[in-house]
Write a structure and sequence with these properties.
By secondary structure, the protein is mainly beta. The protein has one helix at residues 61-67, and strands spanning 10-18, 27-29, 34-44, 49-56. The longest helix is centred in the C-terminal third of the chain and has 7 residues, at 61-67.
Length: 68
């Protein structure tokens, strides 16, 4: 397609997911009112994942993206 083989642009998004796990690995996302985990994913312009991070839901999206 005439594109460079190296990744030049990445999109980061987060999603809160409900879980039944009541251990220290789950949290509460007050903005979305979901108890569980939060997934952060970075994808390139082709939609291929470049980085994935799963954390507690009570961590802010910005903090999770910086940690990724």
């Amino acid at each position: 397609q005439g594109r460079s083989a190296r990744t030049s642009f990445v999109i980061v998004d987060a999603q809160s997911v409900k879980t039944t796990d009541l251990t220290k690995n789950s949290g509460y996302d007050g903005a979305k009112k979901i108890s569980g985990i939060k997934r952060h994913m970075a994808v390139d312009i082709n939609g291929l994942p470049q980085a994935i991070l799963v954390i507690r839901a009570n961590v802010l999206d910005r903090s999770g993206a910086l940690a990724m």
